[in-house]
Design goal:
Layout: E1 21-24, E2 36-43, E3 54-61, E4 67-75, E5 81-83
Antiparallel strand pairs: 1-2, 1-5, 2-3, 3-4
Length: 99
């Protein structure tokens, strides 16, 4: 039997690929009560899931775009938002004692 090459994971919405920048909210999974931005390392295609759901290995990104944690996440890609760039960080001005 010849070796079968793994097929890319498609969801009917968009294919999740290495390097994708995703904004995850509760639309992607109930676990994301606090939205988060992640950069996909890889889709974990060897795990069996319900139709339309996917496991990914990703870096959770902090407000400056730096990786703050590596996570395995279970989500519905149809509810994910693909970003083309990180949102600009919110800059806070000091208003206080003037030290």
């Amino acid at each position: 039997m010849p070796f079968e090459q793994s097929k890319p994971i498609t969801t009917g919405v968009r294919q999740v690929r290495c390097g994708d920048l995703l904004y995850l909210t509760s639309a992607a999974s109930p676990q994301f009560t606090r939205p988060m931005t992640v950069r996909v390392i890889r889709a974990l295609s060897d795990r069996h899931t319900y139709h339309g759901w996917l496991w990914i290995d990703a870096y959770q990104l902090g407000p400056t775009g730096d990786a703050v944690a590596r996570r395995e996440l279970y989500l519905m890609p149809a509810g994910a938002q693909w970003l083309t760039a990180l949102p600009a960080p919110v800059r806070r001005t000091s208003s206080g004692s003037g030290r």
